[in-house]
């Protein structure tokens, strides 16, 4: 592939034996459009066949953001103007790309500088080498827009490889993984991971930067509160976790987590919280393709409810951060309804 731009927002070039994919939509924090997904997939397809390309580098042209997610503002508008088929196709193509990155036969390195959220993690979290800078910030804030953690992150968040020596007291999660409580916490709250948090959870494999920058990576909230998160985020039903979050804390760490969750969950769609709980519990027991298939089923169902349009409006369109979700409480959400979608 000669150096050229396959899409105005994606630059594809060669650097010796390295195929370089650069996200170049800085005004929108590299939010992924259908054409950007097609461009990335096309580059991967061509470079897989090209024996002169030995590895792939995935990065941004902007230090402000690697990628802030999929362009859900476009999805919302498309759903309203054209029906749900274009949005369905967008997510199908995006999830297919996520799986392609996870199974690509040549090494891929994601260079993460600045914000990486939602669909951005769908690009970065599935590749073997995830290099961050001290400016990186990662989150899955989908519950705040009436959605779920998707792009394969329901699988990643429930199969985290955390620093074992810092997590000796952790309970085993579902499916033999120790990360289900942590994944639930990250998924329902949209917690923003610092570079130090990303290294602790294993979302990042390395941090690049000067020794001085690396020495100032903190604070490490997740490491300090891992045991409390394990204790609070266990249970067979979301109602059990919610009851524990509202109970008297056993120590300062639990109180810190409870206070953080109270503020975060106040902004979340109750239906999304329950659906996320059911999805992540199932994803902890499945493989990535099954998790992606389950995400697609839930994504289609949630987009056909008013809460998705309302959440995107409140967070990304009007930005008043005052969504009117219905039902307004998780007590009125039937978990069985969302379990029935899951393989």
Query: Helix share of residues?
Result: 40-55%
The count of strands amounts to 10
Average per-residue pLDDT, rounded, comes to 93
Structural class: alpha/beta
Oligomer designation: single chain
If helices are DSSP runs of H or I spanning 4 or more residues, what is the number of helices?
Answer: 16
* Separation of the first and last Cα atoms: 39 Å
Strand content is 5-15%
Largest sheet: 7 strands, mixed
Spatial strand order of the main sheet: 1-2-3-4-6-8-10
- The Rg value, from CA coordinates, equals 19 Å
Q: Low-confidence parts lasting 5 or more residues at pLDDT below 50?
A: 165-177
Shape: globular
What is the chain-wise order of helices and strands? EEEHEEHHEEHEEHHHEHHHHHHHHH
